[in-house]
Amino acid sequence: MTKQSIVIAAAVAATLSSASAFADLTANLGVVSDYVFRGVVQTNSAAGNGGIDWSDDSGIYAGVWATNIEGGTASGLEIDLYVGYGGEIDDFGYSVGYTHYGYTGDFDSSYDEVNLGGAYGDFSVDIAIGTHEALTAGGTDDDYTFVSLGYGSGPFFASYNAFGGDWGGAYLEFGMSTDIGGAEASLSVIKGEPEDNFTGIGANTSDGSTMVFSISKSFDL
After folding, report:
1. 51-66: string of b/e by CB count within 10 Å (b at 16+)?
2. Tens of pLDDT along 168-193?
3. In angstroms, rounded to a whole number, what is the distance separating the alpha carbons of residues 216 and 149?
4. CA 34, 80, 123, 27 torsion: positive or negative?
5. Dmax of the chain from CA atoms?
């Protein structure tokens, strides 16, 4: 499935800036050396991604985001749909939303999540409460939680991330980002691997340490 937690992180960050930062309609394009979502490698090579976001000065936002995925004999597209609301109380930013992760091909079955986010100063927290549809007919859905505790200062960022519920495992992610000609470039290292999550047909294995380079650009429509 940084995006890197883009759904919640972007919403919370927006609430901490001026209302004028809410463009009515924006698009984004990017490429990553490996698509890693919540500690699990989702491709065997580089992946391209893109999305469209709508937001209103009231704090309501919605969007769609997609990327190519592949693993083993399975490949296709991941298509995410999300909607939510972001606001702020004094210097504390918050958001609440819903995300649906869908897939073409046989890579995986769908995920549905309620997303909660908060940010204060350099610190942030993202919480997802979700259900993973059973891979086979008559199977049992998985209920899970995901918590990410983040810190960012200047170009540097780091986070501790852990699963709960029917899934387990935790990992660390740290790195840095910079602006290159109006595009955002980042280099991150992911250490550790969740033990039991993302058991989809296309989920790839990892040796527990992954380095990811990404570059993306957003623009108004």
Report:
1. bebbbeeebebebebb
2. 888 999 999 999 999 999 999 998 76
3. 23
4. positive
5. 51
**Token digits of residue 106:** 């046989």
Q: Determine whether 138 is exposed, middle or buried from the number of CB atoms within 10 Å of its CB (0-12, 13-18, 19+).
A: exposed
- Residue ranges per domain, the chain? 6-220
Read off the pLDDT of residues 114-126 as tens digits, 9 standing for 90 and up: 999 999 999 999 9
Assigned CATH for 6-220: 2.40.160.40
Is the pTM of the predicted complex or chain greater than 0.90? no
Model confidence pLDDT, tens digit, residues 98-119: 999 999 988 889 999 999 999 9
Query: Distance between CA atoms of 12 and 93, rounded to whole angstroms?
Result: 6
- β-pair partners for 161: 148, 171
> Helix, strand or coil for residue 77?
strand
